[in-house]
Design a protein that fits this description.
Elements lengths: L2 E6 L10 H12 L4 E6 L17 E4 L2 E4 L1 H11 L10 H33 L2 H15 L3 H6 L1 H11 L1 H7 L12 H17 L9 H15 L6
Helix pairs in contact: 1-2, 1-8, 3-6, 3-8
């Protein structure tokens, strides 16, 4: 039975952009699993699978329905144990939780300050209204106030990525010699930035840029094909 991944898009279904969904896309390719991706608009997400989740990613695999990117990765690890490991053992799961925390509490905040207006402009009008209202309530500032700080946010991004840069000074991937789910967590964040703004806003010789290019080349360049 075909695996179905529900992901997030704007007006153009060919440009799914959610960082959490990209983690799962890369994890599915890592496992060598065939799947169908169904990108959805923000306001459509709560209507699929009988309202199973208000957010994506959501994965349907036969009778199994799983939401949350980390839970999906753990499911794939257990259900497809004979395929390449996403974590390399229990220690890798624990380490990936640390990477997840760093990504969500540091990197995502930096990217939000850069990409907010770009994301809004990618959406259909009904989703633009939802996105503006929900994000202004969540962040406590107007879009216009946040847009005024965009240049400063771009300038601050390299410092926010220093922990990743430090890790990459020892090996080519967060997972070591080859990528693991920890790589896909951080890759998803920068892929989100790339698709929504057209750039990751780093010099090409930055170690993070070189790592990001290596990730874009994985699995026949599936992530690079979305721009």
């Amino acid at each position: 039975m075909t695996i179905t991944l529900y992901s997030l898009c704007g007006a153009d279904v060919a440009r799914p952009f959610s960082p959490h969904c990209w983690k799962v896309v890369m994890a599915l390719h890592h496992k060598g699993l065939a799947f169908e991706e169904r990108p959805l608009a923000f306001t459509v997400v709560p209507t699929v699978e009988n309202g199973a989740s208000k957010t994506v990613p959501v994965l349907r695999d036969g009778q199994e329905l799983i939401s949350d990117s980390f839970r999906i990765a753990q499911y794939l690890e257990e259900a497809y144990a004979d395929a390449p490991s996403l974590f390399g053992g229990q220690g890798g799961i624990a380490a990936s939780r640390l990477v997840e925390g760093y990504s969500q509490h540091v990197v995502h905040g930096a990217i939000t300050r850069i990409a907010l207006i770009d994301i809004h402009d990618m959406l259909d009008p009904v989703d633009q209204a939802y996105f503006r209202k929900s994000r202004e309530e969540r962040l406590g500032r107007s879009f216009e106030e946040m847009a005024a700080g965009r240049d400063a946010a771009i300038a601050a991004l390299p410092a926010a990525l220093q922990p990743l840069r430090h890790t990459l000074s020892f090996h080519p991937f967060v997972g070591g010699a080859t990528p693991l789910f920890g790589d896909y967590i951080l890759f998803g964040a920068l892929q989100w930035l790339r698709i929504t703004t057209g750039s990751i806003h780093l010099p090409p010789d930055d170690p993070v840029s070189r790592w990001f290019d290596r990730c874009l080349d994985l699995y026949q360049g599936v992530a690079r094909a979305v721009a």
